TrEMBL record, chain A:
Protein name as catalogued: Xanthine dehydrogenase family protein subunit M
Matching InterPro entries: CO_DH_flav_C (IPR005107), Diverse_Substr_Oxidored (IPR051312), FAD-bd_PCMH (IPR016166), Mopterin_DH_FAD-bd (IPR002346)
Domain annotation FAD-binding PCMH-type: ranges: 1-177
Stored SMART domains: CO_deh_flav_C
Protein keywords: FAD, Flavoprotein, Oxidoreductase
Entry superkingdom: Bacteria
Alphabetical list of Pfam families matching this protein: CO_deh_flav_C, FAD_binding_5
Organism: Nocardioides daeguensis
The keyword Flavoprotein is assigned to this record: yes
Annotated TM spans: none
UniProtKB/TrEMBL annotation, chain B:
Keyword NAD tagged: no
Signal peptide feature range: none
Keyword Oxidoreductase on entry: yes
InterPro entries: 2Fe-2S-bd, 2Fe-2S_ferredoxin-type, Diverse_Oxidoreductases
Keywords: 2Fe-2S, Iron, Iron-sulfur, Metal-binding, Oxidoreductase
Top-rank taxon, per record: Bacteria
Record protein name field: (2Fe-2S)-binding protein
Domain 2Fe-2S ferredoxin-type: 2-78
Automatic annotation (TrEMBL), chain C:
Naturally occurring in which organism (per UniProt): Nocardioides daeguensis
Region (Disordered): 1-21, 789-813
Taxonomic path: Bacteria, Bacillati, Actinomycetota, Actinomycetes, Propionibacteriales
Key words of the record: Molybdenum
UniProt-recorded name of the protein: Molybdopterin-dependent oxidoreductase
Composition skew (Basic and acidic residues), residue ranges: 8-21
Amino acid sequence: MIPAAFEYVAPASVEEALAALAEHGDDAKIIAGGQSLLPVLRMRLNAPEWVIDLGRIASLRGVRDGGDHLAIGAMTTHHDVGQDPLVHEHALLISKAITHLADAQVRHRGTFGGALAHADPAGDLGAPALALDATFVVQGPGGTREVPAADFFVDLFETAISDDEILTEVRVPKYDGWGAAYEKFVRIAHQWPIVAVAATVRMEGDTIAEARIGLTNMGSTPVRARAAEAALVGVPATEEGIAGAAALAADGTNPPSDLNGDADYRRHLATVLTRRAVLTAAGRG
Amino acid sequence: MTRISLTVDGQNVVDDVEPRMLLVQYLREKLGKTGTVIGCDTSNCGACTVHLDGRSVKSCNVLAVQADGAEVTTIEGLAGADGTLHPVQEAFRECHGLQCGFCTPGMIMQTVDLLAENPSPSEEAIRLGLEGNLCRCTGYHNIVRAVQHAAGTAEGASA
Amino acid sequence: MTATQEPTRGEIGRDRRRKEDQRLITGRTRWTDNITLPGMLHLAMVRSPFPHARITSIDTEAAKAAPNVVAVFTGADLGEGQGACINAWPVVPDQVTPAHLPMPTDRVAFAGETVAVVVARSAAEARDAAELVEVDYDELPAALDLKESADNKVLAHPDLGTNVSAVWRFDSAEAGTGGDVEQAIAEARENGIVIEREYRQQRLIPAFMEPRSTVVDPTGEQITVWSATQVPHILRFAIAATTGVPESKIRVIAPDVGGGFGGKLQQTPEEMITFAVARKLGKPVKFTETRSESLLTAHHGRDQWQRLTLAATKDGHVTGLKVDLLADLGAYVAIVGGGVPVLGAFMFNAIYKFPAYQFQTTNVLTNKTWTDAYRGAGRPEATFAIERLMDELAHELGKDPLKVREMNWIKHEEFPFTTVAGLEYDSGNYEAATARAKEMFGYDALRAEQAERRARGDRVQLGIGVSTFTEMCGLAPSRVLGSLNYGAGGWEHAEVRMLATGKVEVVTGASAHGQGHETAFSQIVADRLGVPFEDVEVLHGDTQISHKGLDTYGSRSLVVGGEALVRAVDKVIEKARPVAAHLLEASADDLEFADGRFTVRGTDSGVAITEVATAVFAAHNLPDGVEASIDSEATYDPVNFNYPHGTHLCAVEIDTETGQVRMRKYACCDDIGNVINPLIVSGQVHGGLVQGIAQALWEEAVYDDNGTLVTGSFVDYLLPTAADTISFELDHTTSPATTNSLGTKGVGEAGTIASTPAVVNAVVDALRPYGVHDVAMPCTPERVWRAINSGGPGGETTQAAAPHFDESEGAAQ
């Protein structure tokens, strides 16, 4: 219940934070909202010597309109992202996913960037970020670089962020007029998803023109259901029309087996949830 | 040790704390605000819910140093200065929304937040809004009634 | 017998808001962990990661040298001063009972067992130093699987030579309470119906919300123990009996206690270690467990295999029931321990008139956390088995499950009824409760909807589950306990003190932890004594105030403790009568007592009992030879158990594509005799229902092959939230108990006992068209999905948890 002792620093700018990171290196952990890190520390699964708190860096908070994209500050809370009208208008899938993320208290404290950097494949933001081809802005001693979502998630709890870098912003292209749905499957409400499907579609009349689908907890990282996406193009947005494409949703995935379900069950769930998510996203659910 | 200064239930407080001290431990051990309790170590149970700058948070999942400069309200700061209960406190009693009472401070604090955001929630919205708070006694039935009662959307307890 | 309870002008039957709530809703509470004493030290436990191992060495030097560490003790250091954890109920004379030291010295028998304790000036420093204690273990093979352990494949305690702690048996032919079950089964095989099933009662964790905490203050003449316990009196006895400290030198206080559900009726190793450390250091010490420690080491519940054979005639009259249990005790025989399955022995026949019955339980030791009472304790297991079987019989017969039950149940005019298990049921009316439940539920309409969904091949199928339960509660007649070899009695004590200012103090030996005793007992006393509800103060949970008691479990507080209270009040009135007569200058025989006043029959002359109390306090004008006190106490030993019953109906919707089960409707009509406070009763039923439903759908303590509890936090041990449950429809019929003055029956466990089979019956009912006749608990979506696709019960739970809180050094921010 009580973390091991650590030193604490709360820099006022990204530069200061990077300097602290450079100084303490492997002995440091960054805390954003802390909603995953603090349980880890309390159960003493990790015991960093330094904790660097990004909570005092105002520039990392907020959602702004970047023209062709939205820029979501890494330290913006889930609650604030979820309530943001820009997000609702241009990246509906993220709004939808956030309503399912953890619980109200965690959404008040947890941050958009923190959750993505934690890279739990069962986290609710990875699949939407991947599906939307978000870009991750990472700042390090050598400056800023942009990592496409497809390259960001490396493995279980592992991202493309280097030890000396900080995720500062997530840029999400605008998907104006796209429908979206996040189908999350749990046994009880406060669980991480056993499987979840993030789907967003662009309709032309009654036909699906484009579809983007991200899968939560179907491997060691969030994954795209590319075969299903491809098969959905041009099909009518009906249950029958979608079913064949949705059946491809689990192709190429390598889901875990654990208390809440074995891999074959998860594969099956992914196909069912994909069909439902796409139908809902198409406004036919 | 790190010096922090914050407002808790209307009182300004200043302390030197170890950075590892959780907000809930600070409230309980340094300030004697033992009305806020600890029920788990994974932030599932919500028993430690307080308001941090006006929003509900799990105080076991916040470091005391992170609350530097903030305003914290606990279950002990909810009633009026004259002892008048907050309507949500009153509703929990009226509707028998508690038994052992251990989860109650967190339930009440989360309910206050829930109703601030949505003053007339449906039963479904109430149930979802409380998904971060575990209760083992009531089966939630009368907690839901209590929230409805506080919101003025139900008649209250039925025996 | 059955009548709607008369509305009352008095307190009994009134939905009083609880007295307890003011402090609980304002945070003005006294949980054990809130207690801080001058110079208080804090403990951290060093626990075994292995389920079975020899301790070869413990190096405490580094820990002792850590900042602000005061001491580090191993089991050897504490020696005999640590006492022992007792088993109060050796169910057979030759029960195999491993010695249970709070902190073992040479061998650990389950993962989580304490091997050393660190004492430091702060809890954080104690935990820091605990990580510095180096323990070397030689791992031993561990007895983990219940069935394999029953066969002694691996011994949980090698020196005992067997894992079988006891075999306890009841046979109606041998007992003279019924016929020969083997004969009934043989006849049914020839010319009737035989249903044979094996059901699993998964391991559960009580998971009270307040983690356990103990503070021991050895300064002063008595050693004071505060503990988050249901059983302060039993704890005091056990500490005294095993440490040699005189009972009179120990004061145990259960302050505000945050739930128990049986999980806090233990005498725990942690309490004993805390006591021993306080004595050794002469300083106040505190131990508060983390939730992970609680899930790992506080006793677990259920965990049985049930092999069942039901014999019936071709038209559905049950002719015999044979029950063969394997019960997992875990590593030690806990305080009730092997008695839990025995408590179920009398309930498998439930509300039915079975002519022949046999029960056997084989109690087995394993290298897992010990098991003991969890809400219902034996009776949920029994009720589950028989109510599942009655549904199976109905299915076999092609009849409505309620009809088959009605063919076999005890009719209301047949009470009192002596069952095949030898109990005498005093009252009940299964017909009335069932009729009311069906009406509330809309049974016929839901059956019609079910048929329509089936015909349509709807993706969402509807299932309807029935549970017509009874239970035995109000533990317990001491003679019966004696005949079962239980180590204590089942009485309860109460005291009524009439204060000079007209207020009344009531002392009860029951020890509440959420039940609302302060309110319900005030109502009883207010009515009977004729004083205002507000003027009654209920004191409990402190052995120096409530010097005598047997605490709270087994739905006993009202029916046993309440009756003791009634008798104490009646004694007060009788002691006051001669004083009142003296004050009124009348003959005691001419006095009537009503509404708190003695009046002289046929006159206006009278005196309030509170005025008598004041007069007795002054003692200026008492009759000769009358002592200056009308305070009274009573100890009540129940003459019988009591037998609440009810009909519970549950509808579930099953998403046949995913296996997800959703509660659609739940209606129940319980008969718990007369009700003191309907608001409290409804709360008990709601909470009980959800715990029972949670066994059916969500909860399961899972160990992996290494003997590690993989459901060791609330991330993986799944308690339902508000978002997973529904609102319930409750009603009552009333058949007053005939064995206590108030006509009450216990209600604390009823909901839990009844609801589990109602839900599983509903799940199976929905899946009958898929050839499914069982789904193992908990009925997870995966199991349901597999059952739909294979017809089987859905398979084992994979013994691994997802690592959401990772150990990696990665870039988590």
